[in-house]
């Protein structure tokens, strides 16, 4: 979808003749306000749901298959990325039945290493782009960053929105940048385009109303996924924020018939947390989102606890953390 076609589509969906910043602002600020007490109470209530042992086995395997195994450090080396890819393909060497993770997420200059290491495993290569994590760069730099990663073999691009522009009310600028990055995800020939995951950095958006507006703005501009956080800012993923984003993709489907994915990232560390999120996905958005194509966890440390819980269900014995490889 080109920026011009994204604009035309947004105009049609919003029922406006011209997609000006004023039109976007009027529409986004016309969305229902978020009841803070209500959204937090509902998230807390969903977190109390219990899961039977048989369902727990399925839920743990489902959560493993939804993880984006990630390394985003300045000290990343080719060896570290290869090691991460080996873990992605075989998370638990003691149990060959353990599911693979959904994707390996790296900086753009490491995409070719991950692509080579993962081969035909079916695991996606995701690359953070657009001056991650700050998003402070010109559009030309952001597009070059994206195109380099796509050329290197990235299946997914995780971009960050310009939070400064969003908080200043320059919604059209944010829309245009998302639409342009979406176009930069295109490939020539028969190869599928890279999917675009738009990071809202909800910890910097200040209010639940802003999270709802940013979610809708990203979807209007062509996002395939909306993602909570870079993992570099606190608070990162929270259940109330993820609940809001799940409501947004549910409502988007009712409006357009399209399914947009959701990715909470940062701060999800235990199997208990992951299962709470899966319950929320089912209750709020629906079971069509209980798949790696529609829901991801950006939480590498979560994998260790999921593997330990899986071992306990399989053997009846709870192993220590040293029984699982550390990223």
Question: What value does the average pLDDT take?
Answer: 94
- Determine Rg (CA atoms, Å): 19 Å
Question: Strand portion, in percent?
Answer: 5-15%
Structure summary, number of beta strands: 7
- Output the number of helix runs: 13
| Net shape | globular
Q: List the domain count as a whole number.
A: 1
CATH topology title: TIM Barrel
Largest sheet: 7 strands, parallel
Structural class: alpha/beta
Low-confidence stretches: none
InterPro entries: Aldolase_TIM, DeoC, DeoC/FbaB/LacD_aldolase
GO molecular function: deoxyribose-phosphate aldolase activity
Pfam families: DeoC (PF01791)
Keywords: Lyase, Schiff base
Polypeptide structure, described:
- By secondary structure, this protein is of the alpha/beta class.
- Strand 6 (225-227), helix 11 and strand 7 form a beta-alpha-beta unit.
- The chain starts with a helix and ends in a 12-residue tail after the last helix.
- The chain has a seven-stranded parallel beta sheet.
- The protein has helices at 3-14, 21-28, 36-46, 53-64, 78-89, 111-118, 139-152, 163-167, 171-184, 208-221, 239-256, 271-285, 300-315, and strands at residues 68-70, 103-107, 124-128, 156-160, 195-199, 225-227, 261-263.
- The chain has one domain (3-316): Aldolase class I (TIM Barrel).
Describe the protein's topology.
Blueprint lengths: L2 H12 L6 H8 L7 H11 L6 H12 L3 E3 L7 H12 L13 E5 L3 H8 L5 E5 L10 H14 L3 E5 L2 H5 L3 H14 L10 E5 L8 H14 L3 E3 L11 H18 L4 E3 L7 H15 L14 H16 L12
Parallel strand pairs: 1-2, 2-3, 3-4, 4-5, 5-6, 6-7
Helix pairs in contact: 1-9, 3-11, 4-12, 4-13, 5-6, 7-9, 9-10, 10-11, 11-12
């Amino acid at each position: 979808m080109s920026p011009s076609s994204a604009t035309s589509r947004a105009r049609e969906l919003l029922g406006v003749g011209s997609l000006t910043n004023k039109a976007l602002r009027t529409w986004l600020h016309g969305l229902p306000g978020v009841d803070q007490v209500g959204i937090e109470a509902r998230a807390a209530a969903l977190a109390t749901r219990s899961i039977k042992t048989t369902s727990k086995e399925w839920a743990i395997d489902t959560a493993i298959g939804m993880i984006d195994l990630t390394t985003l450090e300045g000290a990343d080396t080719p060896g570290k990325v290869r090691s991460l890819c080996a873990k992605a393909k075989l998370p638990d060497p003691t149990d060959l039945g353990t599911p693979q993770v959904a994707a390996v997420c790296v900086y753009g200059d490491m995409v070719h290493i991950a692509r080579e290491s993962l081969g035909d495993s079916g695991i996606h290569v995701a690359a953070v782009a657009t001056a991650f994590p700050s998003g402070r760069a010109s559009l030309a730099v952001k597009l070059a960053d994206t195109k380099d990663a796509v050329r290197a073999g990235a299946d997914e691009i995780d971009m960050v929105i310009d939070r400064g522009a969003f908080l200043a009310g320059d919604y059209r600028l944010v829309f245009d940048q998302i639409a342009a990055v979406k176009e930069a995800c295109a490939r020539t020939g028969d190869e599928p385009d890279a999917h675009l995951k738009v990071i809202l950095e909800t910890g910097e958006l200040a209010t639940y109303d802003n999270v709802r507006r940013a979610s809708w703005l990203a979807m209007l501009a062509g996002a395939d996924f909306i993602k909570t956080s870079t993992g570099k800012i606190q608070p990162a993923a929270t259940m109330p924020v993820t609940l809001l984003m799940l409501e947004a993709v549910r409502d988007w489907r009712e409006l357009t018939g399209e399914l947009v994915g959701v990715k909470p990232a940062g701060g999800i560390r235990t199997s208990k947390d992951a299962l709470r999120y899966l319950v929320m996905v089912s209750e709020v958005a629906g079971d069509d989102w209980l798949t790696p194509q529609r829901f991801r966890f950006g939480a590498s440390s979560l994998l260790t606890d999921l593997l330990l819980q899986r071992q306990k269900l399989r053997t009846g014995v709870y192993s220590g953390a040293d029984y699982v490889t550390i990223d």
